[in-house]
Design goal:
The chain has 28 helices and 27 strands. With 726 residues, it is an alpha+beta fold. A hairpin with a 5-residue loop joins strand 21 and strand 22. The protein is elongated. The N terminus is likely disordered.
Amino acid sequence: MAAIDPAYSASTDADPTAFVRERDGHREIDLLVKGVHCAGCIARVEGGMTEMPGVRNARLNLSTGRLALSWDGDKSKARDFVRRLAEIGYPATPYAPEESTSAQDAEEKRLLKCMAVAGFATANVMLFSIPVWFGQGEMDEGTKGLMHWLSALIVLPAVAYSGRPFFESAWRALRARRTNMDVPITLGVTLACGLSIYETVWGSGHVYFDAAAMLLFFLLIGRFLDSRLRARAGAAARRLASMQAATANRMDAKGHVEAIPARDVKPGDRLLIAAGEKVPVDAVVAEGESALDTALVTGETVPRDAVPGEKIFSGMVNLSAPLIAVAEARREDSLLAEITRLVEAGEQGRSRYVRLADRAAKLYVPMVHTLAASSAIGWLLFGAEAYTAIIIAISVLIITCPCALALAVPAVQVVATGRLYRSGVLVKSGDALERLSEADLAVFDKTGTLTIGKPQLVNRDAVGEANFQLAARLARTSRHPLSRAVADLAGMGDVASRVSETPGGGLEAMVEGKRVRFGSAAWLGLQTGPDGASEAWLSVEGADPVRFAFADALRPDAAETVSRLRELGLEPVLLSGDREGAVKDVAEALGITHWRAGLKPQEKIDEIEGFRARGHKALMVGDGINDAPALASAHVSVSPAAAADISQAAADLVLQGEGLSAIPDAVVVARAARRRVFENFGLTILYNCIAVPLAVFGFVTPLVAAIAMSGSSMIVTLNALRLARK
């Protein structure tokens, strides 16, 4: 057995070669990468991997920390990839959704604790700093020294604890011979504390313990919010992964059934799928007949009949009778796994959305280091003491801290999302409002989005009261959606006795000595209706069959919502997995000219990608599991309150009420928020134009720099609060 490299063993608990997959002649693995915070981290990780021999593709998802690698060659190269990631400062382990969630939760708890400690230190050190500020000239040196020592006792342990996220990140970067945003932060805090200790022990000048604690507190707030937003962005993929069946019932040649992990299913295996169970992998029905919940593929609420020869997909639910099916794919190659990858690809596209603040932040490290060093050198050349030069360098590092720049977008997001929440819209994604303000197309799913999502009887008068009540007596015994539509409309009442239900067929009973059946046209040997609508037939012995027609009614505010969005410049589009006739009727009722029917998840994504290629930015509104990939890949997405959990997780905004009228309201707020963001950028630029020269020329101390930095953040926040007014 090959020995495991000690360097590898130190960085992970599991041998990554056990997680390598083989596909189309090359190897693949997913790794959970830690310490990724920004677009620069993505570039370093992906660049470091693609430089390695044999690597075909490397793609890192910022939201989930999942790095997808594919390469040519032996699977033992997986260890080299993990080792290389550790060398460039990003420890990695084999990816599992549950590990990603637990790692994210642990990081959030850590940041929250650090933020609490920094906040406690900031509040308490002011008890000793304020008397020193206002007691200049009146406070004796002994009292001032005591205040400094008490400040040190509070701040130094707090800085050592709460500064760890920045210190560790900076150390990893420097060890890998690179820099990141945490390097100047670490340098500024360390110099401020070191100089303050020197002044407390040997001198009698100013100390800057309060500035160090305050700086860390503000920075940790931003880091925590960023971590929380990224965790929410990756929730859709994790929930989809958890929807896959964990086990499968495999049958051997003698008919014996064995429960195995679903990941061990191979193409050609015979599987027993009991009523109520999820289909573990893509397969073909070999024996048995049943009804399947196919919402995963079509988004429709009406079950589909499964008969021998019918292809079924992972994640579907067998509703009524056992099936024996032959597996056609492994779990990781099945439809639900593909939808998970599509959702992650969409989330990755959004996490690469580079805002103005991100682009400005890329220039921060080299500019600040150069400016601080040049200031110190310049003062030394002009004859200043080393102490003075260091103070000015620290002031430059602190006053140029990008807190205001970092808050320019989040402050607006917090105020805008609060306003929308009060209006019944939950904003889940960090930059959703920015993207919503840019949308110029409104792409709708049909069933459950523009319509209520439940079949309703539309020809009650035509069927007659007696026939309706007779059908209701049978329908009350069934959970089939069409039966429930009749039973719910009829209300409480009598139930036929000894009703038998044929999976995929219908209901049958003897009522008053006559054979009564209520079910599909095929089961009853009848021709379906000419309009192709959802239907059920009532057949009473000795009488002509009666057709019950069903349709999915529009939401009451659907027409108004579509009209208002068109007024705002968003052209409506309808993309549905339903039948052409039903989709056409809805499109004509709402005045939508661009529509397509019968689409599967990938085809919806293809449509959205086509819009993007033509320069459009699509707002996608959908509710079904099959809509999750399209929601994730759209420029921005909205999900109704009654949508599937996966769709709500994939969407950027979730409506809390029953209607759609909040969507145009959200567009209005998003556009106002965009204006506030640009105003904040302008205020930040103005602050730096004034504050930086003052720091460079020695007019501010580190303490004043910290106050000025905090003041700029307050100005940005107050400007954002203007958005709260309607």
